[in-house]
Amino acid sequence: MKREDEFKLYLKKKFKPKTVTNYLTYCKSIEKSMNNKDMDDIIVDYKMLSAVKDNLLLKGYSKEYISGLNAYLKFAFSAATKLSTTSEILVNSKFYYVTRSKDVLLTSEVKFVCETLEQEYAHIVRFAEELFNKAGFGFIPIVVSNEMPDECEKILGRFFGSVKPYIEIYYRNFDSYDAAVIKNCLAHEYLHYLHFIYAGMEYDNAKKELKEGMADFFAFIYSINLNGKDDFKIAKNRYNRWKRDFASYWPYASALYFLQICGNEMKYSTKYDNYVKYGCIGKFLQVFLSTEHPYDAYLAMLH
Ligand SMILES: [Zn+2]
């Protein structure tokens, strides 16, 4: 375990020494049964979990023994993110990434928001990996919060960049609890995270039009790619709003620049392939990859 010390410290605060020893022994034996695969890799790549479980079943381990993995992940994840101090991991062990602030009650709306975020997360990460043709994009914690940030625009989520980055979701600002809205919102925040790990410090200095335009365009093509009636509705709403508020104070509208290629603007389409053919996706990637130099990236977006 790469994070063994961190994990031990975390367990020590919560459990008796005997329990701590038991957990560590359990982890070591699981690692051994997986041909010394590192348990912490599952935290980075959540998709591995079911494969690991199947493998252990095949090897004849009991279901009870394997279900210990859920508890391990819950604790290891808290240890890795240190989120346990401000929020709690949901009681339901199927949530690994989504936590809620302590004051958020698990109402049916909150449960729906949490479930949708949890279910959609891997899909968004995979979409990004395919788009950027790169593997191993990470998962960061998502905190469902009661806060309603006081901004001129009703914001649905926010990305916090630091050594331990995370995303906050302001579910009370949602006009509706349609899954399509939630998915689009998570995709938007996730792009901020990718932008942050790619451009590091420069991310902070980048213009708001650049950051928000990129995040909004990514969420837009993500919704289009989902190919659902509600997802198209969200995408169309964003598009209409970009058109209406283009070149205004509203930084999200700069996403429209990605539809403008060599002075011509592509019309809204529900076909993902059209955005590829017209060059919008290519432009987006080109701008993203020049974000280390925000000024160049900004210029690339405008032209
Ligand atoms: Zn944003």
Describe this structure in words.
There is one protein chain. By secondary structure, the chain is α/β, with parallel strands linked by helices. It folds into two domains: 4-79, no CATH class; 86-302, Orthogonal Bundle (Neutral Protease, domain 2). The protein contains 13 helices and seven strands. The strands form two sheets. A five-stranded mixed β-sheet has the order 1-2-3-5-4, with helices on one face. Strands 6-7 form a two-stranded antiparallel sheet. Strand 2, helix 6 (108-132) and strand 3 (142-145) form a beta-alpha-beta unit. The model is unreliable at 82-93 (pLDDT under 50). Zinc ion is lined by residues 188, 192, 212, 215.
Short description:
With 303 residues, the chain is of the alpha/beta class.
Structural class: alpha/beta
* Domain tally: 2
Which residues sit in consecutive blocks of at least 5 with pLDDT less than 50?
A: 82-93
**Total DSSP helices:** 13
Strand runs, count: 7
Helix content: 55-70%
For this structure, the quaternary state is single chain
Q: What is the correct CATH architecture of the largest domain?
A: Orthogonal Bundle
Instruction: Provide the succession of SSEs.
Output: HHHHHEEHEEEHHHHEEHHH
Give the termini separation.
48 Å
Q: How do the strands of the widest beta sheet line up side by side?
A: 1-2-3-5-4
CATH topology annotation of the largest domain: Neutral Protease, domain 2
Radius of gyration, rounded?
A: 21 Å
Bound molecules: zinc ion
Mean pLDDT: 85
CATH hierarchy class name of the largest domain: Mainly Alpha
* Beta-strand residue percentage: 5-15%
Instruction: Characterize the largest beta sheet: strand count, sense, and whether it forms a barrel.
Output: 5 strands, mixed
The best one-word shape is elongated
